[in-house]
Amino acid sequence: AQSVTQLGSHVSVSEGALVLLRCNYSSSVPPYLFWYVQYPNQGLQLLLKYTTGATLVKGINGFEAEFKKSETSFHLTKPSAHMSDAAEYFCAVSVDYNQGGKLIFGQGTELSVKP
Amino acid sequence: DSGVTQTPKHLITATGQRVTLRCSPRSGDLSVYWYQQSLDQGLQFLIQYYNGEERAKGNILERFSAQQFPDLHSELNLSSLELGDSALYFCASSPSRLAVGNEQFFGPGTRLTVL
After folding, report:
1. What 3-state class would DSSP assign to A5?
2. Cα separation, A44 vs A37, whole angstroms
């Protein structure tokens, strides 16, 4: 069965510092991987996704993630944090072709940005 | 704005009651997904419909049911409500039947509080 583990339920960084949110997945077949962001009282918005091809994926708002098959990881990074990045971030995997492409989410990481 | 609408935004009800949550997908999207977000279970896939037919089922309780209508809007029915059903319920839509690798667009959610 597929699963996603996000290391760290809370991450705090200073404005301008590097953001690193960790995600590891478990899958017996090549996965499709996603990062979604949830701002307070809002729905989820796609940041970026990995399907096939280039393993370094660039997303919106300056975020990027690298798919590392050998490490079964898909960590999310941003070189310089902004106050507006404060939100909850979810890593998700979608592999189940016979199950309609449902998303399996990690537990989420809440990012705080200090001025 | 994802283009997915959900009503109502908030719902407060009592144990044992029945409620209906409504979702309108993005124009042209045929797949509708329902997810439940709670503090203890995180984000979990409930059920998917594609063009009016049930396509995939997740951790959906027998007290819960859903359907997708000819105009493609979907309703999630929750009955015999328990305190533990209090959660944020998201609807997402996608143009594809499988949606594997495709983005799912999330609505703003319906917050259900069971007292």
Report:
1. strand
2. 6
Count the Cβ atoms, other than its own, within 10 Å of residue B28: 9
Task: Decide: helix, strand or coil at residue B82.
Answer: coil
Nearest chain B Cα distance for residue A28, angstroms: 15
**Count of Cβ atoms closer than 10 Å to residue A58 Cβ:** 11
Average pLDDT for residues A26-41, to the nearest whole number? 87
Higher pLDDT, B54 or A31: B54
Q: For the segment B68-111, what is each residue's pLDDT rounded down to a tens digit?
A: 999 999 999 999 999 999 999 999 999 876 656 778 999 999 99
Cβ B80 vs Cβ B16: under 8 Å: yes
Residue in B4, B97, B103 nearest the CB of A46 = B103
- Is the confidence at residue A22, as pLDDT, over 60? yes
